[in-house]
Specification:
45% helix, five-stranded mixed β-sheet, alpha+beta, Heat Shock Protein 90, 20% strand, 616 residues, 3 domains, Beta-Lactamase, Rossmann fold
């Protein structure tokens, strides 16, 4: 603890003067001054130590320091006959950017029969009677400060900002020792001035302590949030790994069985195996898309396509996707749509995605009973409510329900990645809507997707045309005559599958795996369409397209890029390189066939735009 002392050397005040009594009194006064200041410093240190060990309110911690200063000064001036008696001490605090100060604390009056606490201070012009919470003009404080014997001392930090004022009111001095009157006034001034300095230092240190505590608390909260997020991400990775491995197992095992020598399944078994492979592939793609969609949304890069949708058709389409899962669990599916609702302006794919997420969640947590969808109109908003008779959700879990990676544990394990509801909520917000939940444990749940009836068509851009959707449209008609297709594909299994599929449609397919082979094939072949992979062993497919466009002989050949580049801007990048169309992997084969059929007729450039002219 810091101690302050200005005591003279032991023998400095002992001299041979005849006024020994005066000298002793002066020495006692000095001892009293230093003892009082040391006591004040000790109390202030205790206040700051208390502030370090707790997280107080700033106002409460500051008030404790001010009370300590006033009480210690009051105790000092009334504890010694050498000191000034019948004093009242107070502190006035200045408000930022104000022209007044307010008395915030006054010491207890020494007399038991005294009136309520007050300060009675004389300025050069008037008498001030100040009680707790009384307002003091700053000009009055400045007069008290500038008197020959000051009655006010400012509390100013190192920057010069005035935080408050320390004020003292004293009774008139009367003493038989006139020589001590002046020294007592000096002692009073020293006590108050140094006390003001100690108070100022303590207030500044308190600021630093509170600032440090606030920063520490913020850092602690951030660390806790990071730790929680890290745990959720670890759980997410574990769940995602489990999902991916399960789906891959559903793909690799049937394939292995079909390829096993001596294993000759029936046509019906083969169809079942293929259905399992296709279903698992779709699920795997949906899982990847959920992750990518959430990343796009958080980067404000998700594009939506506004269009007028038939509400019943959308709901029927989603129900068709979950009907089989509900049947497997023995659950009833119910649907009720208000006949007044016919159309809604939204993104078709995203609306189905939101409803599908809610319905699949309801099916996941319902072991018996029913799952339903109600659609009603509330003002200018459409309410899609998915309800179930399942396990319900606790209030504690409802608080975290829409956070990324959060999952509700099930008795038979956890499914999914914990992204579905977070993605649904964000998609709803993009549509200008929201998602709310009502649920009780063992009483089922109701999730309501609220969307505006109309949107400003055109806002948000156009959805990427090449996004894989596993179209169920019928295969295109077989070409009336043999059409040559040049397939530039780096991956052999992909190339084999595409050749088989396109040849079954009647196309003549020539496969090359790199740029050098492409140029060699073009010397011998006049393809109607080039299917171009982007990543090749000896070059970049987009660079090859640009070279083709610069070559007079090949510049009119339609080029369709088939690539795993599926992030925002990839389609635009490909089109800017000169390709005619774009399709992302995994490839929707019917969609690919429709593109090939479209461009297998001779395209021409007219006024900078592609047109089609029959090759026959």
């Amino acid at each position: 603890m810091q101690q302050y002392s200005s005591l003279p050397d032991q023998n400095s005040l002992i001299d041979a003067t005849p006024k020994l009594l005066t000298t002793i009194e002066q020495l006692s006064a000095q001892l009293w001054l230093e003892s009082s200041l040391n006591q004040l410093q000790s109390r202030l240190n205790d206040c700051l130590l208390s502030a370090c060990n707790t997280v107080p309110q700033p106002e409460a911690a500051q008030a404790e320091i001010l009370r300590t200063v006033v009480n210690e000064i009051n105790s000092a001036v009334h504890s010694s006959n050498l000191a000034l008696t019948e004093c009242a001490v107070g502190i006035a605090m200045c408000q930022p950017q104000e022209t007044v100060a307010t008395v915030c604390y006054i010491s207890r009056s020494p007399s038991p029969n005294s009136q309520p606490l007050f300060l009675e201070v004389l300025t050069a012009e008037k008498k001030l009677l100040l009680r707790l919470q009384e307002v003091i003009k700053l000009e009055d404080l400045q007069q008290l400060e500038n008197q020959q014997l000051p009655s006010a001392w400012r509390l100013a930090d190192d920057s010069g900002s005035v935080m408050g004022w320390l004020i003292i009111a004293t009774a008139p001095l009367s003493s038989d020792h006139e020589s001590l009157i002046e020294s007592q006034a000096q002692l009073r001034s020293q006590l108050m001035a140094r006390s003001a300095k100690y108070c100022t230092t303590a207030l500044v240190q308190l600021r630093h302590i509170l600032s440090w505590q606030q920063q520490y608390q913020q850092l602690s909260n951030s660390n806790q949030e990071l730790e929680r997020t890290n745990q959720l991400k670890n759980q997410f990775l574990a769940n995602t790994s489990h999902e991916i491995r399960t789906l891959l197992n559903c793909i690799t095992v049937p394939v292995y069985m079909l390829l096993t020598p001596g294993f000759e399944p029936t046509k019906e078994s083969q169809r079942n195996y293929l259905n399992i492979i296709q279903s698992s592939g779709k699920h795997l793609l949906a899982l990847i898309n959920d992750i990518l969609d959430l990343s796009k949304i958080e980067a404000n890069q998700l594009e939506v396509k506004w269009e007028t949708l038939d509400v019943r058709f959308v709901c029927d389409s989603v129900f068709a996707l979950v009907k089989e899962k509900a049947a497997d669990k023995g659950l009833n599916l119910r649907q009720e749509i208000n006949p007044d609702i016919t159309t809604l302006v939204a993104d078709d794919l995203r609306l189905k995605q939101m409803l599908l997420n809610l319905l699949l969640n309801a099916l996941k947590f319902t072991s018996e009973g029913s799952v339903g969808l109600e659609v009603v109109l509330e003002g200018v908003f459409v309410h899609f409510t998915v309800w179930d008779t399942g396990t319900g959700i606790s209030q504690e879990d409802q608080v975290q329900l829409f956070q990324r990676y959060f999952q509700i544990a099930k008795a038979d394990g956890v499914e999914g990645t914990g992204l579905g509801l977070a993605l649904t909520q964000k998609l709803a917000q993009i549509h200008g809507g929201s998602v709310k939940v009502e649920s009780e444990v063992d009483r089922g749940s109701r999730f309501t997707l609220i969307l505006p009836l109309n949107q400003e068509v055109g806002v948000g851009g156009v959805e990427e045309a090449g996004e894989a959707k596993f179209s169920s449209s019928p295969l295109p008609l077989t070409p009336s005559s043999s059409v040559d297709i040049l397939l530039v594909e780096n991956d052999l299994p992909n190339a084999d599958l595409m050749q088989i599929y396109l040849r079954n449609l009647g196309y003549q397919v020539t496969w090359v795996e790199n740029a050098a082979q492409m140029w060699e094939a073009l010397r011998q072949l006049d393809p109607a369409v080039i299917l171009m992979d982007v990543y090749l062993a000896d070059g970049n497919g987009l660079n090859l397209v640009q070279q083709l466009r610069e070559h007079g002989q090949y510049r009119t050949i339609p080029v369709i890029v088939q690539t795993a580049m599926a992030m925002k801007g990839d389609r635009e990048t490909c089109l800017a390189a000169g390709v005619n169309d774009y399709i992302s992997k995994p490839i929707d084969l019917p969609f690919l066939a429709s593109l090939v059929a479209k461009y297998s007729q001779a395209p021409t450039l007219v006024d900078g735009e592609w047109g089609v002219e029959s090759r026959e």
